[in-house]
Amino acid sequence: MGNRVTPVYILSGFLGSGKTTLLQRLIRHWMEQGLRPAVIMNEIGEVNLDGLLVSSEVPMAEMLGGCICCTIRGDLSVQMAELIEGEKPDLIVIEATGAGNPMEIFDAVTEVSLYLKLDIKPMVTVVDAAHLADLHASQQGKTYRLMVEQIRCGSVLVLNKIDLLEPDRQREMSEFLRRTNPYARIIPAVKCDVDLSLLWKAADGQNNTDPTTQRGAAYIQNGEAAQKSDHYPLHNHHDHSRDQSHDHNDARYEDHRHDHNHDNNDDHNHDPNHAHTHASHEHVTVYTHYFDGPVDSEDFERFIAELPREVYRGKGVLRFTDTASRFLFQYAYREADYLKVTPQGNVPDVAVFIGEHFDRNVIAQQLKELERKQAEPE
Ligand SMILES: Nc1nc2c(ncn2[C@@H]2O[C@H](COP(=O)(O)OP(=O)(O)OP(=O)(O)O)[C@@H](O)[C@H]2O)c(=O)[nH]1
Fold it and tell me: For 139-181, what is each residue's pLDDT tens digit?
């Protein structure tokens, strides 16, 4: 493995907050400095569409169909070892799933640093200002609690999407971040357009290389740092954990649930702290739809506009009957975005929807109806 220490940057933040947008900027920034970054992308869904947004020159490991913080935690050390040995990157950046518990992700990476020489950098959390402002009004729900946890774990908080908020609401959210995590640096932004050279400089000033102090100062101060005693060997139950953690009766339907009995890491079950930290994304539902053919673009846009509130993230690559190009669509907190793409390799026409207890059958039926309409013209 050599003596090289690989810096590891972790991007946290709720689904659709702007992590990939920040990742793209960071990669450009590092490459301009002559560095060779590598990326680990973690997605709850079975397909990695964010990967399409990252240059094919950048080595990437995909951890799909689960969360680093739980179901595919054991894969992380394997993926990191392979990247470091195979690609010899100057740094690794991990984009965590937006549904992941940031503390658990930090712990998972910290565990890997027992086997590999890593310099774990303080966590950057991207906050969707508009989504937060909305949930802040009621101050309840699992999504809100997870967002708060992500805010508390970040050493740098990028308050993103401020273009969607009035100035006084922006101020209110900044103040809320300050109260929630008085130790973090808060950077308001649109499309994560921040001074990247300052991101970790500011955080490094607060934290040293001891992983315990990097967990987000708010946690340490409040004495809530999770107590961990669990360890993973390097080549740990790679496929085993993944297979048992999902309901694979129908490959197109997945539920992101926690079932700790599937892990051979039984310590989890005896850790009282674990129960509360892990409850955070039991509620997340994922539906993946593989399209049989192109659909009408207006029908699709209408379908997206009418998505139930419980669906807070959608993304996909698809073909429309009335356009020549393929499109990458993004839906995040009631805003949709379409980008022309020419995917490299074999990317199916697919859409992934992530949300809280929504009815997957309804979404499936609506999409099938769009396909059927095209297959049987009047
Ligand atoms: N209005 C607005 N939209 C933004 C901003 N930043 C990002 N977006 C859009 O929000 C959507 C989600 O952005 P991503 O960067 O993919 O978010 P993410 O956190 O990587 O999403 P997941 O990987 O699904 O968790 C995209 O359509 C972006 O174009 C912003 O500052 N303002």
Answer: 878 888 889 989 998 999 999 999 999 999 999 999 999 999 9
d(CA 82, CA 116): 11
340 lines ligand 1 (CB under 6 A): no
pTM score over 0.95: no
Residue nearest to atom 21 of ligand 1 (CA): 16
CA distance 125 to 113: 21
Pairing of strands 335-341, 326-332: antiparallel
User: Read out DSSP for 255-278?
Assistant: E----GGGSS-THHHH-HHHHHHH
Is 193 close to ligand 1, i.e. is its CB under 6 Å away?
no
Contact between residue 144 and residue 263 where contact means Cβ atoms under 8 Å apart: no
**Residue of 21, 95, 105 to mutate, ligand 1, most atoms within 8 A of C-beta:** 21
Q: Is the CB of 143 under 6 A from ligand 1?
A: no
The superfamily CATH assigns to domain 286-375 is CobW-like, C-terminal domain (3.30.1220.10)
Are 12 and 20 a contacting pair, CB within 8 Å? no
Domain ranges for the chain: 6-221, 286-375
322 lines ligand 1 (CB under 6 A): no
Nearest CA to ligand 1 atom 14: 18
Q: Is the ipTM beyond the 0.85 threshold?
A: yes
Residue 8, SS3? strand
81 within ligand 1 shell (Cβ under 6 A)? no
Ligand 1 site, residue 161, Cβ cutoff 6 A: yes
- Of the candidates 279, 285, 311, the one whose C-alpha atom is nearest the C-alpha of residue 103 is 279
* Backbone torsions φ then ψ of 266, nearest 5 degrees: -75, -15
Enumerate residues 6+ apart whose C-beta is below 8 A from 285: 255, 256, 354, 355, 356, 357, 358, 360
- pLDDT per position as a tens digit, 194-248: 999 888 875 554 443 333 333 343 443 333 333 332 222 222 222 333 333 333 2
The CATH number given to 6-221 is: 3.40.50.300
